[in-house]
Design brief:
The chain is of the alpha+beta class and about 180 residues long. It folds into 2 domains: about 1-30; about 35-175, Immunoglobulin-like (Sandwich), CATH 2.60.40. It contains 5 helices and 9 strands; from the N terminus they run H-H-E-E-E-E-E-H-E-H-E-E-H-E. The protein has a 5-stranded antiparallel sheet. Helix 4 (about 120-125) links the parallel strand 6 (about 115-120) and strand 7 (about 140-145). The longest helix has 28 residues, at about 1-30. About 25% of the residues are buried.
Length: about 180
């Protein structure tokens, strides 16, 4: 009886280890992730609106939101992101190349009519001059853990008739090198 109990506990532990290692390794081994799906339609460091149809590249998108994406590459320098806010709600989320979210901001947190921020790596941030006249309140700096990734911009359309207004707000967004 004790022998079977030990075999059972050992099997459960082994199964748990295999399950956990598979779940942790899957994002790095997936060949058809969001970054790979967006690669053919998004140029580097440019905001591109995403279609919301049923055959869209990104599945399960919320039809109440207009969505745009910027595929960034920080190897040549920092980026300046400018996103005008829509009438209802605007959110900007940052993801690494492997889909790990590391920063998000919305229009209410920005407190302005435009979400403006600088995206750079830690090394690029360390190279900024210390005696800059710009204070932290005037300049929002986001540090990316990787050199490549995605910036997802979303604007809410509370009613279907207001979707063009949300899309117009995202069309004015810019993601360009400094």
């Amino acid at each position: 009886m004790t022998r079977w109990l030990l075999w059972l506990i050992g099997g459960i532990l082994l199964g748990g280890i295999v399950h956990l290692s598979t779940v942790l390794a899957l994002p790095r081994t997936a060949a058809h992730d969001a970054y790979a799906r967006l690669l053919p339609i998004t140029p580097v460091n440019k905001v591109v609106p995403l279609p919301t149809s049923e055959s869209a590249i990104m599945p399960f998108m919320d039809p109440a939101f207009a969505t745009a994406v910027c595929r960034y590459d920080l190897s040549r320098g920092a980026l300046k992101l400018t996103a005008p806010i829509s009438q209802a709600y605007t959110a900007v989320s940052f993801y690494t190349r492997y889909g790990i979210a590391y920063y998000a901001i919305n229009d209410r947190a920005a407190g302005r009519k435009v979400i403006e921020l600088d995206l750079m790596t830690t090394r690029q941030r360390d190279q900024l001059p210390e005696e800059e006249d710009v204070t932290a309140a005037d300049r929002l700096i986001v540090e990316s853990p990787t050199q490549t990734g995605l910036i997802v911009l979303k604007a809410l359309s509370p009613e279907p008739g207001l979707m063009p207004m949300a899309e117009k707000a995202l069309a004015a967004a810019q993601c360009k090198p400094q």
